[in-house]
Amino acid sequence: MDSVETDLHLTTTQVAELLDVHPSTVKRWCNDGDLEIDKTGGGHRRIALHEVLLLAELREIPTLLDGFAPYQDRVWTAIQEAVGDQRFDGVRELAMEWLKAGELWRISRLLLVLGRHPAVEFAAFCDEVVRGFMQSVGAHWSTGELRVGEEHLASESLAEVLIRLREPFATAPDASRPLAVVGSMEGVRHGLGSWCVRLLLERHGWEVCFLGTDVPMEDFAAIQQSREASLVCISFASPAGAADMVRAMRILARFYEADRPFALALGGDLAEEPDFDPADLPFHDIGIFGSLRDFRDAIAPEGSMRLPDTMGAVR
């Protein structure tokens, strides 16, 4: 077993979760002496993490901590905080530490564990882990702690994680599902935001026509018209700003066809709010979103966006 230096102790329920067994099995192992235990002042059992991992190795039981030595205690704590309290600071700190150490595989492994965990909502995962980590990467780059190449490594690692998280939802095309066109605006070469939107929509039963990064507004309009999509989602990121968002809306408005209505969703980190009057634009509805959770709430059943009737299958 890879050594783990930690004083971390788990409850019997946590041990059962880690080893994917019934809590009664853990209690039996404790009673039989297979697991050494400590007891709290109230008489509750606590088992040292290193004892649990030793038993797992002896019995050839795989755990989500396999391969994380010597970080097993921090990984376990970070996952528990994310799952139980929706706090992702520990995850982001570990990811940054591993990025600086060049251990990108650890980042991918941890994020896949979190992204697949049933208690971690996907929109929160994108907001707090994907975007939160990349914001931290940007801050470290601006102070000279990271190089441009390391920023690219982080971005590509997250893209690979999102691709793997999409696999269970990558189904054959289905014309009965409502269709959305998704991509990043012209000049934006970072695609993580649009990837997150794509996966969220697919998880909510949408068909997605994914255009990728650096897409001219005219192409968004052309694809929407040719496919009669009900929703167009455009991701913005630096160096694009509020003025670029307004310009994009006005270009799309010139191509808008009333007999092929669509709602327009725009999202990204902007330093200022775009200055425009929705009444001056022809779209069925317009939404500007600062987080994927806000976007999820807007398109979910009884959401705040007005969507064309062709979206009835989702609403």
Automatic annotation (TrEMBL):
Matching InterPro entries: Cbl-bd_cap (IPR003759), Cobalamin-bd (IPR006158), Cobalamin-bd_sf (IPR036724), DNA-bd_dom_put_sf (IPR009061), HTH_17 (IPR041657), Meth_synthase_dom (IPR036594), SinI_DNA-bd (IPR010093)
Gene3D superfamilies the UniProt entry points to: 1.10.1660.10, Cobalamin-binding domain, Methionine synthase domain
B12-binding domain boundaries: 177-315
Pfam families to which the protein is assigned, alphabetical: B12-binding (PF02310), B12-binding_2 (PF02607), HTH_17 (PF12728)
Protein name: Helix-turn-helix domain-containing protein
Species, as recorded: Gaopeijia maritima
